[in-house]
Every structure is written in C-alpha cells, then in structure tokens.
Design brief:
Length: about 400
C-alpha cells in the first residue's frame, strides 16, 4: 500500500481541521463559538432557493456541458463585466465545483516540477498546498500590516526569476482583508508586462465585500495589456451565501479555459446541474441585497476590531474587505510559545479561531466576523477572559 509523492507534499487544511474540531466539541455538548469558518452566516437568498426547487421540478438533474451550461456561462460573462469590469465572451468563462476547483484545475493544468509560484503571505490556506501538489515551488512574498498586507512592485520585481510561472493575487484577501487599489494593481501590471512568462491568478471571490469607497479593481480590468495571461476567479460561495452549492467561476484566455475544461472533463465532470440553475438565478436577479449584506459585515467589523484592540497583547488593523481580521498576538508568545498553543487555549475557553501560521503568517490568529453580534460580543468577552 502506498500514497503518492504528490500527496505527501501537502498538509491537510488547518481551517477545515479547526472547523471539524469545533463541530466535534459542540456535538459533545461543549459551548463553542466558532469564528473559524470561512462562510457568511446569511441564509441563501429565497429567490435562489426557489430557482433550485424549480430546477429539480423541471428535471435539470442530468449531465451538462463539462465547463458549465451555456446559460450559466452567459450569466458568468455578465457577472465578470458588470461586477469586475472584465469583458470576455462566454467561451472564455468556466464553471467549476467552487472557486477552489477552478484554482486547482488552473494550477494543475499549467505547473511542471520546479515551476515557481509567487504567493503574497499571509495567504489563503489552499494556495500553497495546491501548488505543491502540482509539483510547483512556493515563493512567499512576505507582507505586513504596515504595508496594509500588500506586495510592492519592487518586491515583485525582485522575486521574479525565469522559472516564475504564476503570481497569485487575492483581493479582498483571506485572511488579511487587504484590498489593492487600481493604481496599486497598475504598478504591479507594469512589472508583469516586463516578464511575459508570468501568469496571474486574481482571486476576487470576496469582491462584493469591500468596505472602501469606489469600484472594485481587478488586474485584468485595470491593466488590460496583460489580460491574455490573467485568470480572474470569482464565485457565489461568499458573495451570495451559497457555499454548499459549490459553484465557482473563472474568466481568462481561451487556451487556459480549454485546458481547465480538459482536466475537469476527467475529474468531476460538470458542476452540479441543480446548482448551476441556482447560480443563473443568483447572477441574473437584482444584486441590491449585496449592499445590505456588506453594511451588516462592515458594522460587525467596526464592532469587533476596537474590541480586539482593547485586549492587552492583541492588535489588528481594520480589514478593507472580506470578513476576517488577522489578529497579531506576538506579545503573548512568551506565554504560549506559538500561535497553535494560543488557539488551543482559546478553544478551551469556548472560542474557535485559526492560527495565523496556518495562513503562512506568524504569532496570531484569524477571526471570521461572519457571525451574529451576540456571538461576536460573547467571543470577544471569552478571548479577553482567556488572556487575563
Ligand atoms: C480566498 C479564497 N478563494 C477561494 C475560496 C474557495 O471558495 P469556494 O470553493 O467555496 O467557492 C475561498 C474559500 O474559503 C477563499 O477564501
């Protein structure tokens, strides 16, 4: 019996592990507030639920085209143009089982052993693992709260080598909440224009959840000179509270979309037919509720950030997007040793959060504030109690 070398290169997801642990403790009767989950606590909108039921009643229960139904790819093209400013025909869109699968297929379709992938750190847990699974080498671009967790053009230029294959960008970012402006992206674009071998994956799955004024900026839209090598990833999981539907969307050059479709044809095949019908309804119906949801998330952020900063030893900048705070707990490391021990201590006090080291960060933890105000207040009270 044996496992593959590729599998041995990767670690299980620590966010999933903490979620599972919190579920287990809750099932065993422990009072746990879980702020470890990366999903909005809102109910899926009723019109999406109705469309799901209608799809079942209509008999939309069979295989579809591998890369998504034409109807959904048309809706995806509408979404990329309307919401992200990326104009592509439906043939340059792709529907996958979650944004995660789109990212997985794009990297698997393009990486060879030794290829370098630049990932700003702290990063979303799955990026480095997928890269390593594909035989690529992770090159971390360290960022700090002082630079709003953004990489700089000089840092990018210095990191690029002839073996650099991808730069992964994620704005708004998980776990930092960092958001790139159009000017900041253009400055990165100018560096990338000098290195035509580098592809860019822009993961904009949290785009509707940004708390800055103005329109969301994504590199394919604001620096179209390199759009031919940019894959923009989006989806409905976070924006439309549809994590369980497993629908991810991508827009990019035709050669890459075709390559991802080739791989998908032999992995999952088409995404769920029922979920695809629901996604059409989600994308084609009015999007006004997103602004309301954003305001709810913003008020939660404004509640949690000062409360965390009032706890001795903890500090966090206010995130500009998504629904996470990356809390620095460096002053507490002499007491706890590392952030994993700190997180376990907090779990003993009834709060599940994820260690910053799970995201390539240091000495801290990520809080998801996609929770009710009551839960957030109680969680902060427990964290304060656990650390005094
Ligand atoms: C930055 C980022 N990208 C992509 C995803 C994938 O989302 P899904 O596969 O649920 O669409 C997540 C989910 O946590 C994420 O945080």
């Amino acid at each position: 019996m044996k496992l593959s070398q590729a599998l041995s290169r990767i670690a299980p997801s620590r966010t999933a592990a903490m979620m599972d642990r919190a579920f287990e403790l809750k099932a065993a009767g422990k009072d746990i507030i879980s702020l470890s989950v990366g999903e909005p606590d809102f109910a899926t909108p009723p019109h999406v639920i109705e469309a799901t039921k209608a799809a079942l009643d209509r008999g939309d229960t069979k295989y579809t085209a591998v890369s998504g139904t034409l109807r959904l790819r048309q809706a995806a093209a509408l979404h990329f143009a309307r919401d992200l400013g990326v104009t592509v025909p439906p043939s340059q869109t792709m529907v996958s089982a979650g944004g995660k699968q789109a990212i997985f297929h794009a990297l698997m379709a393009t990486l060879d052993p030794g290829d370098e992938v630049l990932i700003p750190a702290p990063w979303w847990v799955s990026y480095p693992e997928i890269v390593r699974f594909g035989g690529g080498e992770v090159v971390a671009l360290e960022t700090t709260p002082a630079s709003r967790y953004l990489i700089t053009p000089d840092q990018l230029e210095a990191a690029i080598t002839p073996r650099t294959t991808w730069l992964l960008l994620n704005s708004p970012g998980n776990p930092t909440g960092s958001v790139y402006s159009a000017d900041e992206l253009r400055a990165l674009g100018e560096v990338l224009a000098r290195h035509p071998q580098v592809m860019v994956m822009s993961d904009d799955i949290y785009a509707p959840l940004r708390y800055l004024p103005g329109r969301h900026a994504t590199i394919a839209a604001v620096y179209p000179e390199i759009a031919e090598r940019v894959l923009t990833v989006s989806g409905l999981s976070k924006s439309h509270a549809m994590t369980g539907f497993r629908i991810g969307l991508a827009a990019g050059p035709e050669w890459l979309i075709k390559a991802m479709g080739k791989l998908q044809s032999h992995s999952s095949g088409n995404p769920s037919s029922i979920s695809q019908a629901a996604a059409v309804a989600a994308l084609e119906s009015p999007q006004d509720f997103l602004a309301e949801w954003r305001e709810i998330m913003r008020s939660r952020r404004d509640r949690v950030v000062p409360a965390i900063n009032a706890i001795p030893g903890l500090s966090t900048p206010a995130p500009d997007g998504a629904f996470y705070c990356l809390v620095d707990a460096a002053p507490l490391m002499t007491r706890f040793g590392d952030d994993e021990a700190l997180v376990m201590h907090l779990l003993d006090h009834g709060v599940a959060v994820v260690a910053a080291s799970a995201f390539g960060g240091h000495n801290g933890f990520r809080i998801s504030f996609a929770a009710s105000e009551t839960d957030l207040d109680e969680a902060v009270r427990r964290i304060a109690g656990a650390l005094t």
